[in-house]
Amino acid sequence: MSPQPQAAVGAPLSRVEGRLKVTGQAKYAAEHDIDGVVHAVVVDSSVARGRIAGIDARAALTQPGVLKVITHLDAPRLAYRDNPVSLAPRGGRRLRVFQDDRVQFFGQPVAVVVATTLEAAQHAADLVEITYDAEKSSTDLAGSPADEPQTYARGNAEQALGSAGVRLEMSYRLSRNHHNPMEPHATIARWDGDRLRVWDKTQWVIGVQHELAAVFGIPAESVRVISPFVGGAFGSALRTWPHVIIAALAAREVGRPVKLALTRRQMYFSVGYRPAYEYKLRLGSDRRGRVTAMVHELKHETSRYERFWEANLVLGQMLYAVPNVSQSVRTVPLDVSTPLWMRGPGYSSAAFCIESAMDDLAYELGIDPIELRLRNEPNEDPSNGRPFSTRRLRECFRVGAREFGWHRRNPTPRSTRDGDWLIGTGVATGCYDVWRGQAQAYARIDADGTAVVESATHDAGPGTYTSMTQVAADALGLEARHVEFRLGDSTMPPAPPQGASQTMASVGSAVQDTCDKLRKQAIKLAVEDEGSPLHGVDADDVVVSGGRLQVKGDRARGETYQQLLARNNGTHLVARGSYNPPQESRFSMYGYAAMFAEVAVDARLGLVRVRRMLGVYDAGRIISPKLADSQAIGGMVGGIGMALLEHTVTDHRDGRIVNANLADYLVPVNADIPDLKAIYLDGRDDEADPIGVKSLGELVQIGVAPAIANAVFHATGRRVRDLPITAEALL
Ligand code: MOS
What we know:
Layout: H1 18-22, E1 38-44, E2 50-56, H2 58-61, E3 66-71, E4 102-103, E5 109-115, H3 118-127, E6 129-134, E7 150-154, H4 157-162, E8 166-174, E9 186-192, E10 195-200, H5 205-216, E11 223-226, H6 242-254, E12 258-261, E13 277-285, E14 291-303, H7 314-318, E15 324-334, H8 347-365, H9 369-375, H10 393-404, E16 417-418, E17 421-433, E18 439-446, E19 451-454, H11 464-476, E20 483-486, H12 503-527, E21 542-545, E22 548-551, E23 554-560, H13 561-567, E24 572-579, E25 590-602, E26 608-618, H14 625-644, E27 650-651, E28 656-657, E29 675-680, H15 704-716, E30 722-723, H16 727-730
Helix pairs in contact: 8-15, 11-12, 14-15
The chain binds dioxothiomolybdenum(VI) ion (MOS).
Residues 203, 234-235, 238, 341-343, 345, 499-500 line the site of dioxothiomolybdenum(VI) ion (MOS).
């Protein structure tokens, strides 16, 4: 078959939905105009553990406009069927909204007020009096008992440590981080008889559909979830949180459509967070820098009702060719809500510790930090002996070192100054899994020669509308502006969650399969049609370009989709396609990054300023370079936040989060963001998926925080092992 020309993929397209966004026409969850909608405001608990002793809603109910106050005392019992289509941790017991009097974390929804206006609902919510039988709560990871560990071992790490030429022992503490997307979580729910429709902020319409069906005990076909635009999520919208259930419950109780938007403060309570970690790492090496042993002991927080899991052991198993590895991870159940994956989940936390330790080892041995990493590069995946599909980390470091000017640095810590500022540079490795999931798509070419392509995927920011348009345009031989890609509706062909960086590999491959089928269908129609200039041509010799079917190498012989359809009295052609990743692969598949950072640290004040960053990525094929840059820069910004600013602070006396707002919980702002640059190694990974991409969205965050911490060490000679790195730690 003649390969289709690739014109749209790889081109620096701007976001196709950009105009809708900047003109306010893109509707986010709370912005859909639904006739007759009323407003719900959640009342949340002011204790972390205990029972609700009493609820007095009389004052609230007398307010004008108030329709109902719903609590566990009068809420109907909900089905809460098991839901196999769920990202909830296995074996836990879901939080069941308004089903009993138990309080399990500070900020747990305990009542909802529904009123005809938002203001009335807000005011009435303040008037609901709730009393508690509070019990002593524990919310502090430090010193709380842990569950049984999950473990991994190869070789004999303790013995190898005992005989190692160099031994290092480090303890890290990573504070809790919150996702804090710009768009608050919000849901509008409407019942039409027994059928439920919701407009929701979600990274997984199919997941919300199935969870609502399970909770309300109705068939999944009776639930439709719509989410065309998502204003950022970073993982927080992967689960169906209590407020989504509450909106649907309230809508059923008042017999009206209900809108429920969480406040920024409420976003700190019940929509997940990156858990706090304690990480102990012991490392043994020979004098030439060959790491012989690593012992990882991790602890992180979880709720009492669910045992949260994230992939925090993978890097310790496969990043370096370490023969002896021992790992244990324990969760610590606390009176808190359940964490949820936040950009680069598990990996970014582990990478901070491992990559800081590698830096320590480099200085201990007097070996350049890049050289040390290269000396420990594995030739195959040391955790399973499989070959890597592609692993170009050496090239990432080579290209990055040249571009960044790495070798100009004086390797001695605290050796470079610029006035009052100490200057340092650091590197770290980033690495993230290539996840893939089953995905389906639908494509249609209309008589006017334009195409519509659909899949129930999402665009929480990476630019899925644009990148899928590019894939579809090339497979159909259309210009990108003649393709409309639609997403975010559970009635469309199913797609996996937009998480774990799997969207392009999974949905992109399904879109390509679907559009390949559609193009071939059109070509078949043409070559079999006596009226077509392509009649009798071998279908394999026909390509489509600019909407015109033509013989490869003989542009003159051909016709457009419009001509083909018009002659055949066709209004459209349709195809459905899919991607079903193989269960098993012979290969070990990851994306890689070399991260470089330059920082300036005020010698007297301890202030850290990132001066520039460079990421060089082995992420397979880059479909959409402009949007890849947007991901990479966003990942660096997120990593700067993790390294220097972000820190959820809990008052352990009552489990209250004290900085539940964007004034006190610090995220990077423009003034914190310097010159950031991303470079992608040219190439593709054909083992990973049919379109040759690896992962990108998570990868770009992993390795950022340790690169900064390592630069801070180089600048100051101070090793900070707690995140975020604060001025106090550097004084
Ligand atoms: Mo990503 S943390 O899987 O949205």
